[in-house]
Specification:
This protein is α/β, with parallel strands linked by helices and 277 residues long. It is 32% helix and 28% strand.
Length: 277
């Protein structure tokens, strides 16, 4: 169990983490939040890259971290880079060699071990990053925006790899792509302005938006009762429909809610509460 208690971090007058407390067990957690929510600072504190101002984190034997932006020595071969990181992590050579082959197979790069890093595609570099993060079999794995910038095929490959890592470890995947959370995660954390707004399963999170999501013909928009938010516009059978999120009960029957609906509701209500204060 990863126990986090009253974790706080500020940069000057900017509060990045504000008294975060949560307990995370084994499994895959999706960390959702807008830009500036504090997700990357949260990861950097958990990984030990930066030190929190206050609060505590359960001591962790080893952490694997794949940041959103990272650079490699492009002139090195994949195998050479893997061995360099094993050396930096002080993992014995014999143990490193056996594990390296297993990791290369897991991330589908076994046939590229003798190629230069600079020859790899963006998706392959992400998979290499996962292999590096998994060195030494860490009990906590942090993955920041893993599918950002990848094409649909590479996104699918990457998500399948992450899904295969379920087991005796805690994995936190930070993303703004709700679809990735739905496909990967056992539980969801919604974060904004340095605070955790909620933590729960997909069913528990989506219940927050129950009875608050509506679909209506765009031509009938003037029948809606304020306030409401238009989530998206879609075409169905040649007609234009609006998907609407509202705390106000409308004159039509609500439709089925999704994680994205609940996520937006949490963020918008948080913003509304901040403005009222």
């Amino acid at each position: 169990m990863l126990q986090i208690s009253k974790l706080s971090k500020s940069y000057g007058k900017t509060v990045a983490l504000d008294q975060i407390s949560c307990n995370l067990g084994k499994g895959i957690y999706g960390l959702l939040g807008p830009n500036g929510a504090g997700k990357t600072t949260f990861f950097r504190c958990l990984s030990g890259i930066i030190e929190q101002d206050s609060g505590s984190i359960t001591p962790i034997h080893q952490v694997g971290y794949l940041p959103q932006h990272f650079g490699f020595y492009k002139g090195m071969k994949v195998k050479e880079l893997m061995l360099l990181f094993y050396d930096l992590k002080k993992i014995p050579c014999r143990e490193a060699h056996d594990e390296m082959l297993q990791l290369m197979e897991k991330v589908q790069l076994l046939d590229r071990m003798h190629d230069k890093v600079g020859s790899l595609s963006g998706g392959m570099l992400r998979r290499l990053g996962i292999a590096l993060a998994l060195q030494g079999n860490p009990e906590l794995l942090l993955i920041d925006e893993p599918t950002s910038g990848l094409d649909p095929e590479q996104r699918l490959i990457f998500k399948n790899i992450i899904r295969s890592l379920r087991g005796d470890r805690t994995i936190i995947v930070s993303t703004h792509i709700v679809e990735d959370v739905e496909a990967l995660c056992d539980q969801i954390i919604i974060m904004n302005k340095g605070r955790i707004l909620t933590l729960g399963t997909e069913i528990e999170i989506t219940q927050r938006a129950q009875g608050k999501v509506y679909e209506i013909l765009e031509s009938q928009q003037d029948t809606l009762i304020e306030p409401y938010h238009i989530i998206k516009n879609s075409q169905q059978k040649g007609q234009s429909f609006l998907r609407v999120l509202s705390d106000t009960q409308q004159r039509i029957e609500p439709t089925e809610q999704t994680i994205e609906d609940a996520y937006l509701l949490y963020i918008w209500n948080e913003r509304k509460n901040a403005e009222s204060n």
